[in-house]
Amino acid sequence: MSAATPRRPADGRDPVRALLRGVGAYLLVALVLAFFALPMLWLASAPFDRRPGITASLPDFTLANFARLWDNPNAVNSLASSLVLAVGSAVLVVALSALAAYALSRVHIRGRDGLLYALLLLSSIVTGTAAMVPIFLLAAELDLVDSYLGVILVLTGGLLPAAIFILKDFMDTTPRSYEESARVFGASPLRVLRDVVVPVVRPGLATVGVWTVAQVWGNFLIPFLLLRSPDKSPAAVVMYTFYTEGGQPDLALISTFSLLYSLPVVLMFLFVSRRYGFRLHGGIKA
Amino acid sequence: MGAIARRTALRAAVLGAGSAALAGCGSALDPRGDAGGDVALTVATNAVSGGKNADEADWIEKWVIPRFVARQKAKGADVRVAFLPSGVDDEQYKTKLALDLKAQAGPDIMGLDGIWVGEFAQARYIAPLREVAGDGMADWEGWRQISPKVRSLARFEDRLYGIPAGTDARVLYFHKPLFRKAGLPTDWRPASWWDVLDAARELKRLEGVTPLQINAGTAMGEATTMQGVLPLLAGAGGWVSKGDRWYGDTPQLRAVLGFYRDVYGSGLGDPRLQQEAKGRDKSFERFAEGKLGILAEGDYFWRDVLAPETGTAAMKRRDNDVGYALFPARAPGEGLGGRDHVSLSGGAVHVLNPHTRHPRAAFALLTALHSAAALRARLGDSAMITERDDVNDVVLDQDPMLRFCAEAALPVTAYRPPLAAYTAVSLALQEATAQVVAGKSPGQAARAYRKELSEVLGGSDHVIG
Amino acid sequence: MAATTSSAETATRTGEQSPDGHGGEPERDAAGLGRRRAAAFVAPALVLIALFLVLPAVWTLYLGATDYRLTGIPAIDPAFVGLDNVTKALGDDDFLHSLWLTLLFVLGSAVIGQAGLGFALAWWMRERTGWLKTTLEALVMLAWILPSSVVAFLWIAFLDRDGGTLNTLLHTPGAAWLLDHPMLSIIVYNIWRGSAFSMMLYSAALGNVPASHLETARLAGASGWQQLRDVVFPRIRGHVLTNLLLISLWTFNDFTPFLITAGGPNGATETLPVHIYKTALGSGELGYGAALSFLMLLINLVVAVVYLRLLGQKNKARRSGKRKTAARGSGGPTDQDAAPAAPHAEAPAAKEETA
């Protein structure tokens, strides 16, 4: 993409070269656009195909796949379960990480950075398969098996370090003067956070929220291990059920469900980006 | 939700007497055991309505459970039964069950792959049926209908852990129109490996046709072992294990690997198909489209994949166009036990949770899942090899292919050893075939297998040869 | 949030207009939290983390020192084997191969791919508006937020050798990308999947680079590359490191390649998370799998330390950079022009002051 930047100032003065450069830049952009769009074609064609295959092609149009999916006892329900898990985790992650990131950003606690890195690294173990036995036994001991809360707490615990990490960087870069003014007027720290800091870091909170929802929305292992009742299964688990005894995918159901399964996160993205915008702030402070 | 009747060690310690009373209530000796009161049972199998094994799930939920509950009610017992569906990979389902059982929780009745019985028993996740259900279990009428061979699916170290839920068999499928085109007989009955390779060579002359697929490599997973290595090994007169020891680099294994080299080294099989993550699905599609001549598969391929209406790679003219034959021995009489032909079988087993609070009610439900009437209801007008001879006599008439499996394949079939180490050994076998497909010599691959074997078994003590 | 919008906007506007340089001290306790209240703010998160992250993680590390298995005899009676699992792994070709693949995957798809493409996208978008930018941004974000099981199917369909979209476009029927170029395939896949995060981070970062400085450099005859090196990079160094740290860690632990290739063909894409999955869930060797997780943690640690070493240099650079900014007269009117016109521009503008 660096083609978009003029290599020499002289380029600007040569109209032919400038034109070529412009065309080249847009070609490159078109290529990138294609790169991101093309893999998604399957999602647009297969659900409407009478006999969907593993390839994207002009569909032999039908809506029958949707009707079949509608009749499936678990499919539609599972989206509601996913919603509960995703919203629950997102609220917890955003609220707790904002509180923690703010405090860690404003008050120096010895060993803070080391602790954050350590937690970030540990989170990679817990999201892996090897930790499933401890996680399951822990949940069983706390009576959290087959409860949404158990899944939400486990997922939140795993996502919090990265969320705090992102948000702390964010908070570090916000100006302090308003907080001080607010404090002069007698606002409590919680109020300062709510009324002064949160509005400023809103895009960051939105980003962390969307990130959490996307992580939870796609997570299979934890809800699979911890939930038991069929009506609690989230979409990520139900997606795995559209296979036959020998492991053959039922592509009609899978593609159609993929579309429905993706829609909520897409809508959420559109909503959040309209309302709050996505901005990340980063840069590690020492 | 009643699925998790938890009694972890910590709980027991905290709750003390209360929990002991609960435990007493559940013991088979307790006179109050199942009489009256609140009996809640759960059944779990890897089946889910609208998804994987949907027929089975619907049958348990809508046929077995309501009738069982009604019959218990008629006897004056109030029983609630819930079905816990799953629809995931076997490994994931197994993991979940193992974790539940480890926490001394889990469903009262569960379906296991027969091959897991040994490792679950060793971990004391499950107990012999007689210990859980009491001596009364021997009185069930169904035992007489289940042949000892099928019953061995549920046995480990000479003890019976549950009731087998049907069995299956592996055969060679061939595409009759392609055979006709290649000038081969449509009532093909190969008598030796040579015959198979010969037919494949004829098929190779057809444009755009893969002659033969014998599963190889790790991408196919257990399908490589079940549908490839083991039937071939049995055909060469060898086997994987003896007692709790495993054969290493044997002449029979080398012969098997040599067969793989003959198939994939000379273009008779498509080695790429064996490496793709979705290669097995693709081989099914190719067979259905008439681009694959011979395929080694289980009867599930016939029942579920090719089924004219409902199959994932449906063939409208399946009954006319698809032929099937037994795996031949390497040469007549060279198969395991001096046989001319071989097959390989597996199957699920329904077991009781040793921690069930209502062992007698649970056993009653277990047998209800295996009554002749229930099995006939399960099959409807489709066919499957069930565990019961009396049911097989009736239902297999509907499907000559399955009758063939039951009458020709089952007598010469073998079951995999129900040992915990089997999974690792199976993986090592898959790797050996992958090496041959990738171009290594059978000798090299067999030596590497021997080495891998002693690694996964923790030394050479458990390796023969 | 809606209730606070007005105060937010007030803060925003003031933020843009009075760049007084107060934001530069992360340690300053502006809101008068005090240690005790700060601890109370951190506590809920820490409790959750301690219970649901640290405890299982430490437990897993302990399992790594046993021969614990999911089933069979070691399931009831696991033996303590100390570092045996670790030494076994270090002598195991499969593990070393898998480690090599993981490093390749991280370097290719995250450090070079996502960071590079993410930066390029952010650079191209920085002064643009309009449908092309919106569409591109939305597609990139979409690739990031779609569930992985869906994404896996998309890529299997895209790369399929018989009728995949890619082969149709390139007129290369039968090209088996996933078999002939398995690592390349999953690296390209992961660039597609994860560039959004780098794009967002760099977009924010580039908002901190005053257009006036770029203009000055351009007038002074600096090439595009020189502008990047001398004007842009010093100002976004911190973002680069945060970004690399997070995407490396995430890519290191990414399990999605399994859904596309199942680790194949013949282990050619069996990265560590896939290897651990096969060990722990496939073969039920939980003790050994846990030990592998421990090794993975150590490698992640090394990677993080390397990045932090680079960070140390950055701090020096940053401090001197700050002095320079101050000398140039912080917050000339052109600096505000540098901030995107979006209503959320407040923070980038503020950030500029800290840089």
TrEMBL record, chain A:
**Compartments in which it is found:** Cell membrane
Tell me which Gene Ontology terms the entry assigns under biological process. transmembrane transport
Write one Pfam family the protein is assigned to: BPD_transp_1
Membrane-crossing ranges are 23-44, 79-103, 115-136, 148-167, 204-226, 251-272
Q: Which domain of life is it from?
A: Bacteria
Tell me where it mainly resides: membrane
Q: Which GO terms describe its cellular component?
A: plasma membrane
Keywords in UniProt for this one? Cell membrane, Membrane, Transmembrane, Transmembrane helix, Transport
Residues covered by the ABC transmembrane type-1 domain:
79-272
Q: How does it sit in the membrane?
A: Multi-pass membrane protein
Q: Which Gene3D superfamilies match?
A: MetI-like (1.10.3720.10)
Family per similarity comment:
Belongs to the binding-protein-dependent transport system permease family.
What is the designated name of this protein?
A: Carbohydrate ABC transporter permease
Please name the source species: Streptomyces diacarni
For this protein's source organism, the top of the classification is: Bacteria, Bacillati, Actinomycetota, Actinomycetes, Kitasatosporales
From TrEMBL, chain B:
Q: Where in the sequence is the signal peptide annotated?
A: 1-23
Which superkingdom, per the lineage?
Answer: Bacteria
- Keywords (A to Z) from UniProt: Signal
**What Pfam families does this protein map onto?**
SBP_bac_1
- PANTHER family on file: ARABINOSE-BINDING PROTEIN-RELATED (PTHR43649), BLR3389 PROTEIN (PTHR43649:SF14)
- Write down what this protein is called: Extracellular solute-binding protein
Upper lineage is: Bacteria, Bacillati, Actinomycetota, Actinomycetes, Kitasatosporales
From TrEMBL, chain C:
Spell out the residue ranges making up region: Disordered: 1-30, 317-355
- Bilayer-crossing regions: 38-62, 99-124, 136-158, 170-192, 244-266, 286-310
Under the heading InterPro entries, the entry gives: MetI-like, MetI-like_sf
Alphabetical list of Gene3D superfamilies matching this protein = MetI-like (1.10.3720.10)
Compartment(s) of residence: Cell membrane
**Name this polypeptide is given:** Sugar ABC transporter permease
Q: Which Pfam families match?
A: BPD_transp_1
Query: Would I find Transmembrane among this entry's keywords?
Result: yes
Coiled-coil positions:
none
- GO BP field: transmembrane transport
Q: Which family does it belong to?
A: Belongs to the binding-protein-dependent transport system permease family.
